[in-house]
Each structure stands twice: as C-alpha cells, then as structure tokens.
Amino acid sequence: MHTKYVDRNTRATDWDKSYDSMKNCLKTTGDLPQTPTEQQWLRRQMIAYKDGRMFLRKGCKRRLEFEAIIIQYPLAFMKLLYIGTYDDADKVLLLEKQLSVWKHLMSCTKKKFMDTGSRPRRIDGSFGRISLLVDWFFHQVDNYAAMTNHMRSGDPRRIEWMHVMTAYPNFFAYTDNKGSVNSDRRWESFNIVLYRYLNKYSSLPYSSPPHSSPYNKRSKNIAIQHELYLWTRCQMREYRRKTRRMCIGSWRRSEWEIIMKTFPSEFKDGYRGW
Residue 16 — φ and ψ, nearest 5°? Predict the structure, then answer.
C-alpha cells in the first residue's frame, strides 16, 4: 500500500488557502474560524510557530505574515491559546481587560521611548505613575526571558514585545540574547524597594530592626531588610566618595539624588558613625 505523496508546492498552496480563509474570517467577524477542520489547522500552526518549523520557521515570510495577523487580532489568538472554546464569557471578559491594560502600558512605554529617548526610569520625576511603568516594564522583561505568564510562546503580547525590542534595540542593550537583565535591573529593583520602604516606615533600613518594626514578625523579612540595609549603606558610601556607580554624571547618581530630595529627613543624618 503506497502513501500518496504531496509535493511542497501543493502543501504551500494549501497553507496559503487556509491562511487566507483565516484572515478573511478575522476581518469579517473579528474571530478565528470555528469549524473543526480549521481549528485543527490553527492549532497545528501554533505548534509549528512555537517550534519554528515547516512554513513558520524563523526568517520565513509566512512566519512574519502570521505574526502580523496575531498582533492585529490579539484577543482572538489569546482565546485560542488560553480558552480553546469561546463560550466562556467570563474568561473572555477577563482576557479583554488584561489585554486593554497591557496595551495601555505598552503605549505609554513606546511614548516614553519616542519622547525621551530612554526606557522608563524613576529619574523622570514623579515617583507615582513612573514607578508603576518601571515595575511593569521590568516585569515584561523578566517574563519574556523566562517565557512565563503572558510572555509564553504564541501569546500576541510576546510577539509584540519582540517587535518592540527590534524597533528600539538601544533600550534593551542591558539585556543578554535571552532577554535576561544585568546589574542595571538589580540596582533599579533595589531602588524601588528602598523608595517603598522609606515611604511606608519613614526611616532608613537597619540591620537589626526596632522591636516596633513589622520586620520582626518573620525571619525572612528580617533577612530582606538586612540585604536592603547593606545595599543602602553601599550606595551612600559610593555617593559620598563619588566613586564607581555613583561618579559625577552617572544616571545612578542622578536617581539617588531624586530619592534623597524626596526623603530629606531620612537622609539628613544617614547611619550613625558615618
């Protein structure tokens, strides 16, 4: 018994027909095709896209077209990825809200790139809204590197993030080829934690917290505060000496001066013995 051979040109033609059918359905209804055959084809394409093979291998023209349609109709593909069937109205509504928030913050990030020529940093002034954007931005970076949450393979948000990284390569120069962050990310993370600590407790972190401190309740929190205490002392020493990361003109020194001006009384005396 012989298996019928289908040449590559025929398979390519069939793929293009299925793709055009999906595209037309999205344009007219805003949703993906619902027939079992078309749904099966879609799932195969999502697997092929994830693995980078067949007609959706990396660098292939069809892959770029497939990515473009995913970005254009993100909710439809998020339904396919996270729900499978479209009859769960509550889950669809949740996806819509998540996508709306993500799109808004992505728009703010792009505007930040174009208006200031830099990625989100708290050096920009207001600690409120800017700190939210900073938190969100680095959360995307972490998820992208780990391929977790909404940055898993095939998610429209991951694909759009990849395009943003390509469009603004200078703002992602601090990441390696997997998207993992270097010491800049660690420094800004500690800076955010310190700001929140000062805002909540109105004092610098100490190695041995006072008895009234909530950090006495759990040893884990004490260890976290001790690490923050050591980091803060190191930054204050480098700022005073104008050395290393706190040299004159460095962005870290500028950000440190902002937090000092925001909490002048806490930084007035510094640590005892200094």
Answer: -60, -40
pLDDT band at 85 (very low <50, low <70, confident <90, very high): low
- Backbone φ and ψ for 59, nearest 5 degrees, come out as 90, -10
Flag whether 274 is in a domain.
Answer: no
Burial environment of residue 114 by CB neighbours within 10 A (0 to 12, 13 to 18, 19 or more) = exposed
76 in Cβ contact with 180 (< 8 Å): no
Domain extent for 127: 89-172
**Cα dist from 77 to 30, 51, 107, 165, 245, whole Å:** 11, 17, 20, 21, 44
8 Å CB contact between 145 and 178: yes
* Residues linked to residue 175 through DSSP beta bridges, in sequence order: 181
The pLDDT of residue 181 is above 60: no
> 181 forms bridges with which residues in the sheet?
175
Domain-ending residue, one of 150, 172, 194: 172
